[in-house]
Amino acid sequence: MSSLNLSVGGRRYKVHCADGEEAHVTKMAGIVDARLTKLGATQPQNEAKNLLFAALVLADELHEANLSIPGSSKKPEGYAEKLARLQEEVRQEKKAREKLEKKLEDAETGSETLTFGVAANRALSEQERKLADQLETLAADLEQTAERLETNKTAVAS
Q1: Given a cut of 80, is residue 87 above it in pLDDT?
Q2: Cα separations in angstroms, 134 against 86, 121, 125, 139
Q3: 27, 29, 53, 70: least CB-packed within 10 angstroms?
Q4: Which residues, by range, are in coiled-coil regions (predicted)?
Q5: Cβ count within 10 A of residue 155
Q6: Residue 102 belongs to a domain
Q7: What is the rounded (10 degree) CA torsion for 115, 120, 126, 128?
């Protein structure tokens, strides 16, 4: 920690600052002193008022300088509310998109299941038709066999 003796508004002040900051603090004190001199505020009986006035003028100049910088951090009125509203809209849109993606995925899965089900039904229908044909052939063969047996039975009985 360093100790400095500064002169501001015709008065000496002893201040402490971090090591390495001495030049910067001295420069800032010089700016305040110059502003006090420019304002003509060097009357000792109004020292506190003079320093306050100089600080307000410097703060106002700094504020104006920051506003004039392109891309400065000055945010328009209602910025926080608008930002919060837009962030909420983004969250809602994400939720809606996720729901739609889930519905699409479910529909695609359902479509695959439906396609498989239709194909399976077609395969079963084809198998059923073949089985029905085979059953008809077997029934016809069975009738012929029954007729032959009847014929043979009649021939043996006579």
Answers
A1: yes
A2: 71, 20, 14, 8
A3: 70
A4: 83-152
A5: 8
A6: no
A7: -140
Categorize the per-residue pLDDT at 72 as very low, low, confident or very high, splitting at 50, 70 and 90.
Answer: low
- Which own/partner pairs from 26-31 qualify as long-range (CB within 8 Å, at least 24 positions apart)? 31/58
Per the listing, tokens 């043979």 go with: 152
Nearest to 38 by CA among 27, 50, 47: 50
Q: β-strands 2-8, 11-17: how paired?
A: antiparallel
Range of the domain at 23: 2-68
List, in sequence order, every residue forming a beta bridge with 3; answer none if it has no partner: 16
**Cα separation of 158 and 156, whole Å?**
6
Two tokens, residue 36: 């006090």
Number of domains in the chain: 1
Structure tokens, 85: 């509203």
Q: Is residue 68 over pLDDT 70?
A: yes
Q: Is residue 77 part of a domain?
A: no
Hey, what amino acid is at 66?
N
C-alpha dist (Å) from residue 139 to 11, 14, 93, 133:
128, 122, 67, 10
In angstroms, how far is the first alpha carbon of the chain from the final one? 140
| Entry pTM | 0.38
Q: Can you read off the two tokens belonging to residue 68?
A: 């004039």
In a domain, 12, yes or no: yes
